[in-house]
Amino acid sequence: MAVHSSHPVSAPPAAPPRERTSHILLRGWCIVLLVVTLSGTALPLAFGVGVAAAIGVASFLVSVTLWLTTRPRVQWPRLPWYALTYLLWAVASTIWTHWINATLLTVALLIVTTVGALFVGAVLTWREIVRALASALKWILSLSILFELWVSLVWDGPILPQFVRPAGRVADPIVLWSRDNLFDGGRIQGIFGNSNALAYVALLGIVVFAIRIASQAPRRPVLALWTLLAAFLFVRAGSATATLSAVAVVVVLITVLVMRTTTRAGERTRYYVLYGVVAVGGLVAAWALRDRVFTALGRSSDLTGRESIWQKVLERAVEHPVIGWGFSTPWIPTDPAFDGWIIDHGQTVMQAHNMWVDVFLQLGVVGIVLIAAAYVAFIWRSWFFAVDRPRWDLVADRPYTAVTLLPTLTGAILLVQGLAESTPLLNWGWFLLILFAFKIKQAPLVGRGPSEERLIGEQGDRPSER
Question: What separation in angstroms does the CA of 10 have from each of 2, 144, 155, 463?
Answer without folding.
Answer: 13, 51, 62, 21
